[in-house]
Backbone:
């Protein structure tokens, strides 16, 4: 009996928590809402929106109670080595018309595997739109998911199958340490569509597709106006602070997402004019908060220079994990043409470098760290374990640290422009 893709794999079980940890560290805030909407009384298909290459599947991996199986476009499976890696990662190929009409017949075997995954109690994840999009906008949904759902429900009989709409929102597509919001909606049961499915399959597929689109759109930032998209998205960010303050909401990733939705809806309903984005200034701290941040950074730097113990601790931390300060996203931007792939490549590069660096720094510190760090404590080879442990601690602290430094620099530039502008006007 051949091994199923969803069968237990010890190496996968070992690596999966590490990848999930790295995914959460890749974002400043990783917010999940509606986790209790994942069904417990039946099988289910997770159907997220798709605006990035790899990041939505990684987000799903972090929230699924069991390891999900994914579907991806078949052309990336062309090379045997890549195919083996993707299969290990529990990713199945799905063939499209652009792969050739003769290839579509291969989907029958893939759909059979998908049904086995669901029948064995594992979640299946299909990107609802079937392709990624470079805008905060829901694209037309494909029908492959609903064919799998209908055929699987037939085999399940009275055992329920659900489609779970999942909105995923990124503060910024390419910049590391942005915010990620995963918004899980109420599951859509497939059984109510089965009478129509058995009588007229195309009609039932359209009904399921419309039901998912209607459920998914409110769970994400769905800007429908193509002509005014850029202006509307600008408003969503520039007016965000004002909208939060009027409603007494704190500056959290979830509230920022909700206000982006509200602003886009106000434009769509005619309550807000896109011309209002003219002359709007970017969100900024007060001058007092900016000065306080600058003074705090200056105090830390002074302590590093003046106090030997602080200096050695700071150097040790930086030596063990310098990756947050490497502009890998700028390197990836030059090498990767498709913007939707850049964040995924950047994540992969940083994860690989972190693993390699942890091994190297652990060996180096185990061999000579005791001699180098004898100003703090002489624990010999144990410094290797301390160095590896700090890689994990540093990865967790990287997002708030880098975001604080980046925000301080942005606000310093903002107030410098304001001060220079006021002097010129004077």
Residues:
């Amino acid at each position: 009996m051949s091994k199923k893709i969803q069968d237990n794999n010890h190496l996968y079980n070992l690596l999966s928590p590490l990848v999930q940890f790295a995914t959460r560290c890749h974002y400043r805030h990783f917010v999940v809402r509606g986790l209790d909407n994942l069904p417990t009384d039946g099988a289910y298909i997770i159907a997220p929106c798709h605006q990035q290459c790899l990041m939505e599947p990684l987000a799903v991996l972090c929230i699924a109670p069991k390891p999900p199986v994914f579907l991806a476009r078949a052309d990336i499976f062309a090379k045997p080595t890549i195919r083996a890696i993707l299969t290990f990662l529990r990713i199945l190929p799905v063939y499209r018309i652009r792969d050739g009409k003769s290839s579509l017949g291969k989907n029958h075997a893939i759909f059979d595997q998908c049904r086995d995954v669901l029948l064995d109690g594992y979640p299946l994840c299909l990107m609802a739109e079937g392709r990624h999009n470079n805008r905060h906008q829901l694209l037309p949904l494909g029908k492959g998911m609903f064919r799998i759902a209908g055929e699987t429900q037939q085999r399940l009989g009275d055992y329920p199958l659900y489609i779970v709409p999942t909105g995923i929102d990124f503060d910024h597509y390419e910049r590391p340490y942005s915010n990620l919001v995963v918004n899980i909606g109420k599951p859509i049961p497939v059984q109510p569509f089965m009478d129509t499915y058995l009588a007229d399959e195309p009609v039932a597929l359209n009904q399921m597709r419309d039901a998912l689109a209607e459920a998914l759109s409110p769970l994400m930032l769905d800007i429908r106006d193509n002509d005014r998209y850029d202006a509307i998205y600008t408003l969503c960010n520039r007016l965000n602070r004002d909208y939060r303050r009027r409603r007494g909401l704190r500056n959290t990733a979830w509230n920022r997402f909700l206000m982006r939705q509200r602003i886009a809806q106000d434009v769509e309903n005619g309550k807000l004019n896109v011309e209002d984005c003219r002359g709007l200034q970017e969100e900024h701290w007060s001058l007092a908060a900016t000065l306080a941040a600058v003074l705090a950074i200056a105090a830390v730097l002074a302590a590093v220079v003046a106090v030997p113990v602080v200096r050695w601790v700071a150097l040790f931390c930086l030596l063990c994990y310098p990756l947050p300060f490497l502009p890998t996203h700028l390197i990836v931007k030059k090498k990767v043409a498709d913007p939707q792939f850049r964040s995924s490549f950047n994540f992969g590069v940083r994860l690989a470098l972190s693993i390699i660096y942890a091994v190297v720094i652990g060996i180096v510190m185990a061999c000579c760290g005791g001699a180098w760090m004898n100003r703090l404590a002489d624990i010999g080879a144990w410094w290797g374990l301390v160095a590896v442990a700090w890689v994990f601690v540093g990865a967790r602290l990287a997002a708030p640290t880098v975001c604080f430094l980046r925000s301080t620099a942005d606000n310093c530039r903002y107030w410098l422009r304001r001060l220079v502008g006021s002097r010129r006007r004077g």
Remarks:
- The mean pLDDT is 87.
- DSSP finds 15 helices and eight strands in the chain.
- The beta strands are 29-33, 43-48, 69-73, 91-94, 124-125, 161-170, 179-184, 188-189.
